[in-house]
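Example 3.2
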Amino acid sequence: MPVVPDAAYFKAMAYTISPLNPAEQRPYIELLCDGYFVEGLRSVRTLVDLLREKAPLHPGKRLFATLDNYGQAAYTSGHSTDEHELNDTDGYDLSGLDPAAFEDGEHRGYLTTKSEFFIRHGNMAKSAADRSFEQVHLSYGEGEDGLDFFGLNGETDILDEERLFIQAVPVEHAWEAISAFPNGYFSADLQPQDIWAMAKRFETRYGYCLFGIGAAYVGFLRTQVLSEALVASFTADVLSMFDLVDPFFEAPRVADLIRRSDYLLFNYTNG
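Structure, written as tokens:
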């Protein structure tokens, strides 16, 4: 007899999604793009499917989600934005901004409206211009969550079910979407420029597109079929980031994960 899921199963799978409305949903920091607010979603698998479903509704934009522990992620995003001066308006023409960006005729000094996203994006692009993939380094071992690389990618329920934001970011490439929610602040973290470089490499070479970041995890979604040659090359790039004495020993496991999963998660705080 087939197993019929019970009510508890369907309750665990249920989530609600509504248009992003910062005044009601209180994201703690200024989110500069339209999008969605999601409650009750724990599964990365379900999020990936949701992003694929919603993407065609946002031509010319990239969907970018928050992942784990939103409160902490918002805290570090705010500090990372300040640390790297990503809201700096020097050199930008402010004449076309939404009037809400000004107070008593003067710019507020920080970014609060969708019309100002180009400033954040421009600063992010400039700050990441000299960062290369070869500078990206992560730990292969367990993080504070007790999960190593394979454990993380085998654990689907890691999202913050209380609050998850999906922004429709007006950029051409997925790697640029990090501008909408920059993260990486503490000394062991990848910085937003590292994530930009990592995501650019993954997207341009392998079609793995940045789809979200949280307090500890960053995610990439596969958008094309990989040949065995590309699987081997991607495996080598993934292993090159980790502190392994003998990366070839782990190559078969990484390659197998790449073949069977359409997304990959990394702990970017475990450097």
